[in-house]
């Protein structure tokens, strides 16, 4: 596929396939796996501005600032209500080693909206643009500042006007790339993502960098978004949970090669064990299993006995019990399958 290389400010990426920020999921372990399978860039879980300033990065908060060498370049995402908090928060993330600062104006969940954070800012362009200015002024010029948006609060004319005011104003204030999710905040995750709107946005901004988001559950979806909308890159969110192979599949199609088949059960076992080891490194030997449980349920979607494996993964309370599930279900080279989309359980993650 003839797609130009993705660039975000001075950063050049080998492919247009990005691991999106996912609350509760895109920790160091998930990011590093995604990178090893072909994601050119990844973003950490969103952090509240005040939390980013105050977090010590030790003990139970260690994982928020756990950056490995292979993580770079890595984006840190901020969300908050008070523009005054964003500058110090962005400075702290740069000091901790993040290579890009991303501002979240897209989160649609109730807690974000109720706290006047995330997608709420799409209703108040002046505040949104002040936040962008505060971040851009606070961090070194060499650090790209990016924004994540939805296509508006709702489908009203005012909402559309606010979107383009923020979009144009963000680029005018030095933002180097904007990710646009094709749903409104009001939609949350109900109904299809509006890819025609993404095409309109890309045509509107010309050579400036736009990444697309929404309904990217397979490699074919990702290549189709690039082709149909003209966006410069795609941020894969829910489609990558428990399925890092999606990046390998994207690269194959992008290079004009056949789509690789789903991983067989033995390959799934290898990756599950690798993920567990990375989680132990990130959270420590006493906390990794709780994190691994939620990922295990997602990996089970690729197993030919999905329902039985999901039930089995709900039982372990010790590492040995978790390993016993692998020994029981992941010891034969059975063919894998493409994962079904679990909309209910993953909708709040993105």
Short key terms for the protein model shown above:
350 residues; alpha/beta; TIM Barrel; 2 domains; 8-stranded parallel beta barrel; two-stranded antiparallel ribbon; 14 helices; 11 strands; 43% helix; globular
Provide a descriptive summary of the structure in words.
The protein has 350 residues and is α/β, with parallel strands linked by helices. It has two domains: 6-254, Alpha-Beta Barrel (TIM Barrel), CATH 3.20.20; 265-329. It contains 14 helices and eleven strands. It has helices at 28-36, 49-54, 83-95, 110-114, 125-138, 157-172, 195-205, 219-229, 245-254, 265-283, 288-299, 306-313, 319-329, 343-346, and strands at 6-8, 11-13, 17-19, 41-43, 47-48, 74-79, 100-105, 145-150, 177-181, 209-213, 233-236.
Outline of the structure:
It is built from 14 helices and eleven strands. With 350 residues, it is α/β, with parallel strands linked by helices.
Mean residue pLDDT: 92
Q: Care to count the β-strands?
A: 11
How much of the residues is beta strand, in percent? 5-15%
Radius of gyration: 20 Å
User: Would you identify the regions where 5 or more consecutive residues have pLDDT less than 50?
Assistant: 343-350
What gross morphology would you assign? globular
Termini Cα gap: 27 Å
Number of domains: 2
Helix content: 40-55%
What is the CATH architecture term of the largest domain?
Alpha-Beta Barrel
The ordered H/E elements are: EEEHEEHEHEHHEHEHEHEHHHHHH
Largest sheet: 8 strands, parallel, barrel
CATH topology of the largest domain: TIM Barrel
CATH superfamily of the largest domain: Aldolase class I
Helix tally equals 14
Major sheet: order of its strands?
3-4-6-7-8-9-10-11
CATH class term of the largest domain: Alpha Beta
Which class do the helix and strand fractions yield? alpha/beta
